[in-house]
Specification:
The chain is of the alpha/beta class. It contains 14 helices and 17 strands. The strands form five sheets. The protein has a seven-stranded mixed β-sheet with strand order 4-12-11-10-9-5-6, with helices on both faces. A four-stranded antiparallel β-sheet has the order 13-14-17-16, covered by helices on one side. Strands 1-2 form a two-stranded antiparallel sheet. Helix 7 links the parallel strand 9 and strand 10. Helix 2 runs antiparallel to helix 10.
Length: about 425
């Protein structure tokens, strides 16, 4: 952690200086959307000042706008570890992209074909497939979790795969409890039965490097506003698959999946967010021969992963020392390579919303509820009691903020115990 200059990181984010009384807000709300560096704000603003025009025009602002879009696709290809910018598709958000792609895939399927989803996932990678299956007369099969560590039960996956499985949709990391799924294992199993693998990387992308070619997934989708960019969704798809699918588009649209007028100002912000991460890679102890953007992004995410998980260890140690707090998910230190730095808690005698409100009064931002991981929270038996309190660390959080959070949580948990007694 000493080699990671978190203060240099924090100086790039204006929102981190937002005051709450005599101290800044402590923002642990990253899983719902991260803050953005000044350069992202400037990129969106500059787009409006200098390049604000629709695509394809024979004049300067439109040409600049097209250049921004081209560079944003190339930047996201580097972020995914993809070879071809044409494999990158922008959309409003991950949910909208998944509804769009699921509809295209569904048009190639027949009644009785099967779609596999999981209990562990965000509803954005469950409900679009359920809706499409209902429209097309398909069967949806569900992979269960292992309740002891809230991880995907691969034996359950093997049980539901078969010759009629056409799509396996799953998340790379749980947005609720932080579990990392062994994505390559799931992709391999899907391909063994001839199915497509559709990977929700929204919660994984801010925390570790991606290489879609090594993973061999057919589709991987993420949300730049979860990794320091503006609100948008971005999909990687294997080019041959994208070309083979039916497209629901208006006839003159330039792209088969990016329908309508593009969010070009958003693309400018996404490009700036990727360049910010490349800066992290160049400034956090990277070897001098790491020069390409793809390599610097990999270096950035490796440095971020190391820093965040050391910080998460500090958080986990503190949480486990507070009576009445339970962490849901992987708690074995030897298995921390299978989680991201997201803690999901329940506190004896304290409703998750009440805990979040108390933390909010202390200037600490967290989330409560089910975070659209509705099936998972129901499976854990927590839906009727308000779900979970979620603490999401990202690379701009500090040890001092973690200690401040732990002090507040100890006070909240102690107050509940005192009230009971």
């Amino acid at each position: 952690m000493a080699d990671f200059d978190v203060q240099a990181i924090r100086r790039r984010f204006p929102a981190l200086a937002e005051p709450h009384g005599e101290q800044p807000l402590a923002l642990f709300d990253g899983p719902g959307g991260t803050q953005v560096p000044e350069t992202v704000i400037e990129a969106v603003s500059n787009y409006y000042r200098e390049s604000n025009a629709n695509s394809g025009g024979a004049f300067a602002t439109s040409e600049r706008s097209d250049a921004v879009a081209h560079e944003a696709h190339a930047a996201m290809a580097d972020f995914f570890g993809a070879a071809d910018p044409a494999s990158i598709k922008f959309g409003a958000n991950m949910t909208t992209l998944t509804f769009h792609i699921s509809r295209s895939i569904g048009a190639t399927l027949s009644p009785g074909d099967e779609i596999v989803v999981t209990t562990l996932d965000h509803s954005a990678n469950v409900d679009p497939w359920r809706a499409m299956a209902a429209d097309r007369g398909l069967t949806v099969r569900v992979v269960d979790i292992r309740p002891d560590d809230v991880s995907l039960d691969l034996a359950s996956l093997d049980d539901v795969l078969g010759p009629r499985t056409k799509v396996v949709a799953f998340g790379w990391a749980s947005n609720a409890v932080g579990t990392i799924t062994r994505a390559a294992d799931v992709v391999f199993r899907a391909h063994q039965v001839g199915a497509l693998a559709y990977v929700d990387a929204v919660h994984f992308a801010p925390h570790d490097a991606m290489d879609v070619h090594t993973l061999d997934a057919d589709f991987v989708v993420c949300s730049p506003y979860k990794f320091f960019g503006p609100h948008a969704g971005v999909l990687y798809g294997k080019p041959d698959l994208l070309a083979s699918l039916p497209a629901y588009k208006v006839r003159p649209a330039h792209d088969r999946f990016e329908t309508g007028t593009p969010n070009l100002e958003g693309m400018a912000g996404v490009l700036a967010a990727v360049e910010y991460l490349a800066w992290v890679g160049r400034t956090q102890g990277v070897a001098e021969d790491v020069t390409t953007r793809r390599l610097t992004l990999h270096a950035a995410m490796t440095a971020i992963r190391s820093y965040e998980m050391e910080l998460y260890g500090r958080l986990a140690d503190g949480l486990e020392a507070i009576p009445g707090i339970r962490i849901h998910g992987i708690t074995d230190r030897g298995q921390f390579d299978r989680r991201v730095p997201t803690a999901a808690l329940t506190i004896d005698g304290v409703h998750p919303r009440a805990a979040a409100e108390a933390l909010g009064r202390d200037g600490i931002a967290t989330w409560d509820g089910d975070f659209y991981a509705t099936g998972l929270v129901e499976r854990l038996g927590l839906a009727e009691s308000g779900g979970l309190l979620r603490i999401g660390l990202v690379h701009y959080n500090t040890a001092d903020e973690v200690d401040r959070l732990l002090d507040s949580l100890e006070r909240i948990a102690s107050s509940a115990v005192a009230t009971v007694h």
